[in-house]
Amino acid sequence: MESLCKVKIEVLVGTGVLAGLGAIQLLTDTNPLGRCYVFWKQLGAHEKKLSSSSSVNKGIDEYSKLHREASVEERNSSYQALVNAYYDLATVFYEWGWCSSFHFSYQFPHEDFYESIRRHEYMLAGSLGVFGPGKHILDVGCGIGGPMRNIAKFLQCKITGLTLNPYQVQRGNELTQQDKFVKDRCQSIQGDFMQQPFKDGEFDAAYAIEATCHAPDRVKCYAEIYRCVKPGSIFACYEWCMTDKYDPTNSKHQKMKKDIEEGNGLPDIVSTQVCLESMKKAGFEVITEYDLATVPDVQPWMTPLMASWNPINFRFQFNWLGAIIINTVIYSMELLWIAPSGTVKTQKVLQAGGFALRDAGAEGIFTTMYLMVGRKPIK
Question: Rounded to whole angstroms, how far apart are CA atoms 4 and 44?
Fold first, then answer.
């Protein structure tokens, strides 16, 4: 009798979870089943699309070695290999968890995650001062093009996205061609934003969303953007930075910074002041600078990384039980050859980086949204 009751309870719980998943699938735009299908499909073909290594396992070992054994100077000099290897390994996980816009945002009351993501993009786009099909904008570090497509619709303009990673170019253009509203106005191309493959003054404006943090030299990176935009044009960006609250002598702060760097493909994280001075040295007239992480009375940007005990919430994986379940599922997939060898190692690096982002954000020593808006002078 007791065993029968347990079976009934398990059936009820399972039915409830499936019903909840079905309701989310039908009544919201989060599409968990579709995203999981895409994740399994991409993970199975992951190894064939690597450009940085011959296998996921070799790639994550080489990436981890570069972070743990190389100095900051060595990582900066090897930034192309570091960033390319990271996005080879991380992009499929990012798309599964974040969809196609790989960035954070704070949330207003009654605003859902995806609304906040789009609003964050539109706010940056609104600072560019351009509109219409005759305008051509540069997206510096476009990922798989989520912001590019959203902003192209918002501003009704043409956008070229630049990313270092070949897989992101392929995936970004694939998604763009599936969107009838922008397929003729958006394009991702492969290139290094430290040596951009564009003519002088080719663009009417430029933006970067949590991308130029990968640059080994901010002045040189911003100077390349300066070269590529027309006189009088605007460059606006959200930067990842250490804030004034960061104490380089504090071992706890040091570990969080290091885990963020390793978990997010960063050679080194610089301060807000370094970024601001670099914009000026590159030649831009700074119009606005502000850390949006300090906006009051909102859900902070690190909310998606905070633990939830709701089993149908993405944040469930950040409690201790969810972390075990996720790691067990990925381990099983790797064991059954559904996922390539090294996937578990990759997930653990990304997970540690996520925890460090959450903790550093809560401490106020790190921000993902230091806003800078600069204008190229008319000469």
Answer: 39
Distance of CA 220 to the CA centre of its chain: 22
Q: Which two tokens stand for residue 152?
A: 């192209």
**Does the pLDDT value for residue 315 go beyond 90?**
no
User: pLDDT tens across 16-63, in order?
Assistant: 444 544 554 455 455 555 555 555 555 555 556 666 666 777 777 877
Q: DSSP for 15-46?
A: HHHHHHHHHHHHHSS--HHHHHHHHHHHHHTG
Per DSSP bridges, beta strands 186-190 and 158-163 are parallel
The answer on pLDDT for 157 being more than 80 is: yes
**Closest residue by Cα to residue 92 from 368, 355, 347:** 347
- Which positions ≥6 away from 136 have C-beta within 8 Å? 157, 158, 159, 160, 202, 203, 204
Model's pTM, two decimal places? 0.86
Q: What is the pLDDT of residue 343?
A: 77
Mean pLDDT of the 65-79 span: 75
- At a CB cut-off of 8 Å and minimum separation 6, what does 372 contact? 236, 237, 239, 275, 276, 279, 286, 288, 289
Which of 4-8, 23-27, 94-98 holds the top average pLDDT?
94-98
DSSP class per residue in 220-285: HHHHHHHHHEEEEEEEEEEEEEE-TT--TT-HHHHHHHHHHHHHHT-S---BHHHHHHHHHHHT-E
What phi, psi does 97 have (nearest 5°)?
Answer: -85, -35
DSSP string computed for 161-205: EEES-HHHHHHHHHHHHT-TTTTTTEEEEE-BTTB--S-TT-EEE
- Spatial CA neighbour of 52 closest among 42, 66, 40: 66
Q: Name which of 345, 341, 263, 245 is nearest 305 in CA terms.
A: 263
Count Cα neighbours of 327 within 13 Å in the Cβ-side half-sphere: 14
Q: Which residues contact 270 (CB under 8 A, 6 or more apart)?
A: 218, 241, 242
Torsion angle of alpha carbons 353, 356, 362, 368, nearest 10°?
-40
Q: Which residues pair with 189 in a beta bridge?
A: 162
Lowest-confidence pick of 41-55, 170-184, 283-297: 41-55
